[in-house]
Amino acid sequence: MTHTHYDLVVIGSGPAGEKGAAQAAYFGKKVALVECNPYPGGTGINTGTVPSKTLRETALYFSGLRQRGLYSIDYSLKDNLTIADFMHRERVVVETERDIVQRNLDRHNIEVVWGRGQVRDAHTVQVHRHDGSEVTLETDVILIATGSSPFHPPDVPFDGQRVFDSDSILRMGFIPRTMAVIGGGVIGSEYASMFAALDIQVTLIDRNDRILPFVDREIVARLMTHLDALGLRLLLNEQILRTAVDDQHVRLALKSGEELVVDCVLFASGRQGNSAGLGLEALGIEVNERGLISVNEKYQTSVPNIYAAGDVIGFPALASTSMEQARVAMVHAFDLHYKVYVSPVVPLAVYTVPEIAMVGLSEEDCQKQQIPYLVGRAESVNNPRGQIIGDKGMLKLVFASQDKRLLGVHHIGEMASELIHIGARVMSENGTINAFIHSVYNYPTLSDMYKYAAYDGLGNWDRWWHGQRRRE
Fold it and tell me: What is the pTM of this model?
């Protein structure tokens, strides 16, 4: 240790912790970062965002799914594919990203203290090092960025061999022939589609009447069509009553009376904040039953100099927003006169096969909020680049009928997570769908779908306007 007193002590080196620490250090603050794992990066790099998206690309590569759609060639998964083959790229990418994070910390002269941090009081963090020793860090400001971990229902026998959560699935020791995924949220839907792309017989089970309930209903219907084509079996309004494990299989007793026998199960039952053991309750900091910390609009807890950001404060729990939350928190903590709020226009992506991305309001949102709206659509099959790459997606614009102001963008198809930013930028400037009409896009590109979705929307708007005139 080179110091014992700091301007800032950060607990956790995930996206929020790293960027919050770097933001303060950039403005000349003396920063220490506490990390309990033997490597930096948190869930985003080590067990969540980066690994799962890398595995998605690996699945598409080994399955030849893109080639099937493009050339109508009947690819089948290699019979001799090993788990080492499947996981190799994921490990390479994760190790590279860890190095990138470490270099960023080093570049900003951030002192990393390896061990488990505990907040003793408003200005003291006690670190229990892995060798049994302890170190006390005195600080002006504390940022809690400890992230989240998979929630474990108490009646599920997680063993990391045949019954997995979203962390342990990355250490799966074999490629199964059959698999059940419990939970139709983001994680469950992503992994279910990924493994289905590998020709694994996947059953996706959810207690609700639809998967991805926050996604535009029309987009979800498109996704379900694609999942059905992959051979995925979807059981909705269904629940698991009992889970039994033997040496070869997992037996699931369903509420409907069916017994499902599979090689392995992934339970994607949501996540919980990693706040246990931090000592927050003793300081009067509110933590709910899922371990999530309450903060105000400045990401400040009830103790004024203690801030929290990222998954540990809950929704939206995205790496992208976590980074921005931490940066904004540090601007307020040190009065830096820089970025003082996180943009209200937040694009979301679900890395299913195919990808889904969205920003702003859906049709259902507009209906619930009684906002008059219209829709414009463009199909990938009518787009030259879409035809070239064999994409079968759709771009959907939701806009206000009165002034054509863009309210939401929804996309399913290749590169949806990238293309959504075009619409997000227009929304951030409170623009209308005319912005896409006036833009020039490279040809042939998928981006050009924005122009044709806008043309479709203008046609719908023209019919609506003339209908209004007739009624007057």
Answer: 0.91
